[in-house]
Write a structure and sequence with these properties.
Blueprint lengths: L1 H17 L1 H21 L4 E10 L13 H15 L2 H11 L3 H6 L2 H11 E5 L5 E8 L2 H58 L8 H54 L12 H18 L5 H15 L5 H10 L1 H89 L5 E6 L12 H26 L6 H8 L13 H34 L6
Helix pairs in contact: 2-13, 2-15, 3-7, 4-6, 7-12, 8-9, 8-12, 9-10
Length: 528
Amino acid sequence: MEQQQVQQIRKYLDIVMRRKTLILSCILISGAIGLIIYLLQPKIYQSATLLSYQQQKVNPAKMAPDLEAQIRDIVSTLSQIVTSRTSLEQIITDVGLYKSARQNFPMEDVVEMMREDIEVLPSKTGDTFIISFKGNQPNQVARVANTIAAKFIEENLKYREERASETSAYTEDELEMAKVMLDRKETVMRDYKLKYYNEMPAQRDANMNRLNSLQEQYQNRQTSIQDLGRTRILLQDQIAARKQMIEENLGLRRALLGTDTQMMPVVETDAQKLRLFKLTLDKLQTKYTENHPEVKLLKKKIADLEKGNVPTALKEKKSAENSLNADDEQFDKVLFELKLEVKQIGLSIERLNKEKDELKQHIEQYEKWASAAPVREAEWSALTREYGELKRHYDFLVAQNLQARSALNLERKQKGSQFKIEDPARIPEKPISPNFLQIFGLALLVGGGLGGGIALGLELLDSSFRDPTELEKAFGIEVICSVPQLSLPREKTRARVMVTTGWMLFVMGSSTIAGAFVYFYKNGQIVF
C-alpha cells in the first residue's frame, strides 16, 4: 500500500517536471493578471475619528445621570440625524464628494452611497465610539470624517438643548395645571372649613367643654329660679301675714283709742314684729328643715326682738299714740319694700328664664355641632386625602421643574453631557481596499491550479506508455528490457535551445513582474 502511494506521488512529480514550463507559464500569466487587476481597482481609503461621551461636570449625581443604555440611544438618535438627507447633502455639496456619481445618479442614490460609506461603531463600554468614512481621496476622507464628528457634537448640543427646552416647557405646563387644581382644592377646603368651622373635629373638645359649661350654667339658672320662686312664695306669705297683722292691729287700735281707725295708718311695734316673725317661722318649718337659711334668719330676728321686747300694754298704747305719724311712714315703707322685693324677684325670675332659654338654644347648637363632628371628620378626611395627593404631585412637579430648568441652563451654557473628539481623523497613508497580498496570492494560486489542471489533462489525453508496468498491465505481456531515448546531436541542440528559450522567457516574465512591482510600490500604487 505504501509502495503504491510512493509510486503515485512519484508519478505526479514526473508530470510536474515534464510540464513545468506550462505550469510556470500559467503562474507567471496569472501573477501578471493579478497585478493588473490590483492596479486597475480604485483605492479605497478610510479615516476614523474617536469620540468620547463626557458626563456633565456640575452636580453629576443630581442632574439625571446618563446611563449606558441612554448613551446608546443618544448615539443612535444622533446617527439618524447626522446621516439624514439634509445633513449629508450639505456635506456632499461643501466637500465636493461623488462628482461623477452626482452627474449620473439622482441625489437620493448619492446620499445612500454616502450612508454606506459612513460607519458608527460604539465601544463595549458605551462611553466612546468611532466614526469612520471611506472614499477614493485620502484628503477628502479625513475632512469628511472630521466634519461628521463635528456634526455629531453640534447636533448633540442642539438635541440636548431642544430636549431640555421641551422638558422644561412640559414641566411648566404640568406645574401650572397642578397649581390651578391645588388652588381650587385649597379654596374648597377653606370654604368648607369656614362653613363648618364649629363642626370640625378639631373643635370637638372645645365644643364639649363649652357644652358642659353651658349645661352647668343652665342647671345653675334652673336652681336660681327655683330658689327665687321659693323666696317669692316666702315673701308673699310674709305680705299675707303682714296684712293679717295690720287687720289685727287696726282692731286693737280701735279698742284702745275708741275711735275709727280704719283710715289711720297702722303702727308696727316690736311685739307685732315678733308675732309676725313667729307666724312666718311656723309656716316655714312646715316646708323646710331647721338648717334652711330663711329659718335660721327668722330665728335670729326673733331672738333679737325677744331680747329688746317690752310687753306692757300701756307702754305699747302710749308708744302707739306718741309715734303715730312716724310709725305710719315706717309701716308704709316696709310694706312697699316687701312688694318691691317680690316684684324684683319676679323680674329676676323672668330674666333667668330668658337666660335659660338662650342657654338652651346654645346647648342645642353645641349638641348639633358635636353630633355632626363624625360626619365632618369623614368629609374632611376625604378632602385632605385628595389634597395630600395633589400636594405630593405638585411638590414632585416643582422638583422636576427646578431640575428641568437647571438642565436647560446647563445645556445653554454647554456645561451638560457632551461629545468630545479624543482622536481626530488623519489623512490615511494606505488604502483599506484592495488588498495586494490577497489579490496577488489568489492570482498565483489560480495560476498554479490552472497550470496543474492543464498538465494533468494533457497527461490524461496522452496515450503513450511511460512506465513498463503500464505496458504490462495494458497488454498482459512481460517487458524484457527498456531502451532509453537516444537523441541525435541536432535534436539535442534543438532541445537545449528550447529549454534555454523557456528559461529566458520565464526569467524575463519574472523580471518584468518584479520590476513592475518595485516600480508601482515605490510610486505608492502598491501598498501592503
